[in-house]
Fold this protein.
Amino acid sequence: MTTLKKDAVVIVTGAGSGMGEAMVREFVAEGARVAALDINPTSAKRVVAELESPERALAVEVDVSSPESVQSSIHQVREWAGRIDVLCNNAGIIDSFRPAHEISLEEWDRTLAVNLTGPFLMARAVIPHMLEQSSGAIINTASISALSAAGGGTAYTASKHGVLGLTRQLTFDYGRHGIRVNAICPGATLTGLTMPEGGSETLPDSETEVARTPAGRWCQPREIARMAVYLASEDADFIHGAAMVIDGGWLTAARNPI
Ligand SMILES: NC(=O)c1ccc[n+]([C@@H]2O[C@H](COP(=O)([O-])OP(=O)(O)OC[C@H]3O[C@@H](n4cnc5c(N)ncnc54)[C@H](O)[C@@H]3O)[C@@H](O)[C@H]2O)c1
């Protein structure tokens, strides 16, 4: 059991699948009240309905790339819970793994809008409430693609490097005001992102990549969710601006392109 504040109010974006779904489960199991935000309201509602105590969670529709949608979702959470203690900026999309000269501007814009502008908009909407309380924790799901190339294409890698920059600047600006901001950098994790369209097939070449890592296996979403719970808890009180890598050693065994 971690030292998560009793009845902490937690927002998780991308809560309808993968890591976000696992975060909803783990935070509720720790006694938190959780707002499960997703662009797909059906999947967010399913995650809440499947909880042992569904009354401790609320499914909310949001498109994190839209300022209006973000504001409306935060309003709904405040109406429901009265406060916001933790924001897990977890929603994200993968790109088509294309290099710069082959990617469309549309794909670049959409990837940046969801993966980078989304966490910024959510943080911007939540921080005034955290400042009022003089406390809060923001946890951004970045990626090993925040620290290296080849985990995605141009747009994904650039967006995740941006998430780490956002994490560090928010830390600098708000740490003294009681708001801790950190990032998690997962490696290859079995989710809807790596197994698209509900299939059992993982992305091309990923099995080979995973097999060559020191851990030699995929990460499970729950392993990322446990780190989110830890970073939100009082146990992590001295952790500011960190990039917590959970990658089974992927980065230490980085592929040589030659
Ligand atoms: N799976 C991996 O191997 C891996 C590795 C490193 C980082 N990540 C990151 O982890 C995070 C979670 O991804 P996942 O692997 O659980 O993927 P996932 O596809 O299983 O879940 C992502 C969720 O985000 C939601 N979403 C997408 N766009 C949205 C938007 N505009 N607004 C609100 N919700 C939106 C989707 O509906 C989905 O429910 C992402 O930020 C991703 O980039 C994933």
